Amino acid sequence: MMKMFKNTKKLIATLLAAMLCLPFSCAEHQPQGHDHENESHSEAEHRELVQLPDSVLAEFGIAVDTAGPGIVRQHRDLTGEIVIDPDRLAHIIPRFPGIVKSVRKKIGDRVRAGETLAVIESNESLSPYEVTSLIDGTVIEMHLTKGEAVNDNSHDIMVADLSYVWADLSVYQKDLEHLAVGQKATLSIGGNIPDFTGRIAYISPTLSEVKRTATARVIVANPQGHWRPGLFINAEVITAAAEVPLAIPKTALESFENQTVVFVKTGDGFTPQSVKIGRENHTTVEILAGLEKGERYVSKGGFTLKAELEKSAFGDGHSH
């Protein structure tokens, strides 16, 4: 009986010791886990840091700007054609039937109002008379040849004033609600011809039965003659403009580890920060989160930093 009592007492003491020891064992375990977590986080930060001297930044064309407010313009992309303004086009027809004695001008010639284009001998009076231009412009069609008999309206001369032309843009139904007279439009035809920026002067009230499109018209100043009738053109029409707290160029965005990031400059180098984007156009994007006003960021050339990080990931995991 005494032996059983001693064994029971020893068991109770063992249980009490175990219960007292348990909290201290957990406390000792927690710091170890926390240290490991900090170590992993530190390694991740170090792995996603790029250090490049200013000379290298300049060599690779890496630009750094300060984050701040901006304007994001919404637009619609349209296509169209350059056409002649009908009010600047003259159809010149010989007044009397006769024989063409001489043709003074050819297609492409510049003429002044009142300048002689051709001379015709009248069938009735046998006297020559002059066919003159009605406007200043360029001869674009000539349907007269020397010795030809003129007896109907098919023998005409067309003179066009091309100092101003029309850009007729095709507008589909889905875009109509976004367009309005007065909106800014930038026209381009490629090559070395500079873009032209004007405003929509007219939107047709009806749609073409063939194309099922309306027409938005921009009047184009054409002093150099680059905008030739018949040219196919592209147009970007600004439909809205919003001032936003934070806007950056699209060249600042990079894709890294399945996220859209911006490389931000810190005291130790450049690090990729995930960003959330809002409104955007071809060149500018609104930043909703991930970048703060006043932060220095890479606005152009971030792909070089991205390549450096990816190279490090396949190496020892540290940037150079």
Q: How far apart are the first and last residues' alpha carbons, in Å?
A: 77 Å
**Helical fraction:** 10-25%
Helices and strands, in order, run as HHEEEEEEEEEEEHEEEEEEEEEEH
The number of distinct β-strands equals 21
Mean pLDDT: 85
> Main sheet: which strands, in order across?
2-11-14-13-12-15
Shape: elongated
The count of helical stretches stands at: 4
Plain-language structure description:
This protein has 320 residues and is of the alpha+beta class. 21% of the residues lie in helices and 42% in strands. It has helices at residues 2-47, 54-59, 173-176, 302-313, and strands at residues 63-66, 68-83, 89-92, 98-103, 110-111, 116-122, 128-132, 137-142, 149-150, 157-160, 164-171, 184-188, 196-203, 214-221, 232-249, 254-256, 259-265, 270-274, 276-280, 284-289, 296-300. The strands form five sheets. It has a six-stranded antiparallel barrel with strand order 2-11-14-13-12-15. It has a four-stranded antiparallel beta sheet with strand order 3-10-8-5, with no helix packed on it. The radius of gyration is 39 Å and the shape is elongated. Residues 1-9 and 11-47 have low confidence and may be disordered.
Outline the secondary-structure elements.
Layout lengths: L1 H46 L6 H6 L3 E4 L1 E16 L5 E4 L5 E6 L6 E2 L4 E7 L5 E5 L4 E6 L6 E2 L6 E4 L3 E8 L1 H4 L7 E5 L7 E8 L10 E8 L10 E18 L4 E3 L2 E7 L4 E5 L1 E5 L3 E6 L6 E5 L1 H12 L7
Antiparallel strand pairs: 1-21, 2-11, 2-15, 3-10, 4-6, 4-9, 5-8, 6-7, 8-10, 11-14, 12-13, 12-15, 13-14, 15-20, 16-17, 17-18, 19-20
